């Protein structure tokens, strides 16, 4: 299946990558946006992370969806246009699609074109009657008119995986407002959000014994070498992830093992031993905290589902406050 793409050309994408890395390495502290983890290899590594015993979010959210997907589909509307942000391998998506009508439309959006193509083909084989319109795009930049309007079908965004946690709270509000513009009046949002929990559980989830998260983090350096011609020694950067409790977030860093430099596009970026590149945040929210965040962006919580240990929440939000709130387990 061919992917429609409102994104820049490969040359423009390379230019954007270069600009982001250059600006990030100039900043204090140094930082690079986490979206650059996701080339084909990075996406594969993330899939491996999701299978590790330490990484509870995937299996916990999947179990919630398995138990409540029929009710979720009823709230979404079985003949709706379902838009998935950052669809990746779309492993959880069939749990929702199986309850939609044959006249529903599925629009997966992902920044990695090979992953998007493969997952869409797999889903189309499983759900041949559903119309699928894949978009290769950065959903942070997606204009509201990018999704085709289908008369009589409500637009609902599906945003699993607690990817909203990669945004700062202010960035999350901005993204939620963008989603509201994307679905329009009467639209909805089904979103997975990781909950606050013990530091030990969180730290283990981002430091798996198999080393997949470390490889995923360092893959950013490999991309810089192969795509941007950066001169660096990836082995001299260590993966470091920890829960910053005062900020309510996991922080992921690439820490320099020694005094060294990254040379890129005619510039030299110096590192002291112990200095890091901040590569990702993953904010955790209680159900009440996320409800308040969503309200700031104009969304109203209609239903919430969580596991028995309250490790993870799935929320259904609408732009109308008229419907009663449902709490489920």
From TrEMBL:
Segments passing through the bilayer: none
GO biological process assignments: methylation
Annotated signal peptide: none
Coiled coil: none
Keywords per UniProt: Methyltransferase, Transferase
Family annotation (Pfam families): Methyltransf_33 (PF10017)
Annotated InterPro entries: EgtD, EgtD_Methyltrsf_superfamily, MeTrfase_dom, MeTrfase_EgtD-like, SAM-dependent_MTases_sf
Domain Histidine-specific methyltransferase SAM-dependent: 20-318
A GO molecular function held by the record: methyltransferase activity
Protein name: Methyltransferase
Superkingdom field: Bacteria
Gene3D superfamilies for the chain: Vaccinia Virus protein VP39
